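Ticket 4471: requesting a sanity check on a complex prediction with NDP. Repro inputs:
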Amino acid sequence: MSGDYDLDLFVIGGGSGGVRAARIAAGHGATVAIAEEFRYGGTCVIRGCVPKKLMVLASRFSDDFADAAGYGWSVGAPTFDWRALVAAKEREITRLEGVYRTNLEKAGVRVMDGRAVVEGPHAVRLLSTGEVFRARHILVAVGARPSLEPEIPGGELGITSNEIFDLPEQPRRILVVGGGYIGVEFAGIFAGLGSQVTMSLRGDKLLRGFDEDLRDRLGAAYARKGVALRFGTTLERLARDADGAIAARFSDGSSGTFDRVLVATGRKPNTAELGLETAGVALGAGGEIIVDGYSRTLVPSISAVGDVTNRAALTPIAIREGHAFADTVFGGTPRMVDHEIIPTAVFSTPEIGTVGCSETLARQRTGEVAIYETAFRSMRATLSGRDDPVYMKLVVDARSDVVMGLHVLGRDAGEMIQLAGVAVTMGATKADFDRTVAVHPTAAEELVTMRTRAR
Ligand code: NDP
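Returned structure tokens:
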């Protein structure tokens, strides 16, 4: 710590990016404080990735029970208890929240509860006590929040991913608005748990930005599962029925009645009323903090990482940005985060794993693209009789043979893409895939046995 300052670093926001930055900076010898207004762990741990994945896992048991019969098992009629799941989920995230807090304390970080706001290039006020801290560096890692857009009459009857994890009852009929990550994941969860799911999608496919074949196949799989997909519709109004249900009217004149309406139309950076503008920090049109490759804002002492910067709104990216910031500022090793190749999974059922360019993007970027693809039913489906599709695609630069993109739909696609992501990040060629020995019998072996160019 130095002269005029109380602290070397004040981190605002105890989510993935902020916690990592605080711990690493403290490890480099900095005096660090962190403030969190809700619960340590942030969106990922408290109302995002972690509880979502637990619910995805819960939702897949319904298929598992049914599939077991094909393998000789007799399972009694299974029943599901939403409240038991919510309570179990809550115990786990409370445990994780404690782990986050303990790890910060072990690293020597001063952990504070309450909202903190910027009062100048080196000043942060903790609103709960009114205390003002003078910090050599300020890191803003306050994340994003779900948007309730578009604004429509009765829009307040909708809920977001902030509320969905703790509903007192499982909705029997749920409308999901939006077909991005969150929309498709929750549609899959509730379909698996036995709810009637309707999705309202303003476009003509799910998951904009993903490879078109994944989009088409996920849409077809959801339709076969019984999810009602209302493409080309927007929600026009919501109103409470006499019996307490929610009546929805869509832009095509159709209507429907639901117990819950989940609005998953994107997330907005949490920059309102944080004092950023008064300190001279520039914000973009969507409210995101504008930063350079080292996560620095226009104010030299203020940096920002994670969803609040809206670069790639993913936990592992926020963690990397936080870590790189701490190494750069306090560790003497300047590092930028590469946002170019990002393996990612969508925990829909069937699952999606993807890394690198979609076929469309690859065609825009390079002269000649070679596509290798395969579609089959999972081995498990042979005896279960379930429609359990698997699809894999390799997008290859035909001139250099480098694999530009790899896309998987099907069971364990997320696990596959983590490992395949190593190869793609390393710049593997199709020839490298070809000379890799297959692991048999697995689904993933198809990634190294595709010999014939599809187009
Ligand atoms: P996304 O941006 O992924 O998707 C938003 C969806 O809402 C799109 O289908 C979009 O349609 C639609 N939409 C947007 N505005 C409107 C509107 N005004 N009217 C109707 N529909 C609209 O946002 P999410 O909320 O799903 O997720 C936010 C981010 O969180 C993700 O981008 C991702 O970075 C992260 N995330 C990652 C997860 C993971 O890694 N597994 C899981 C969950 C979240 P259109 O396609 O036409 O634009």
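Notes from triage: The chain has a mean pLDDT of 97. Leaving this open until the requester confirms.
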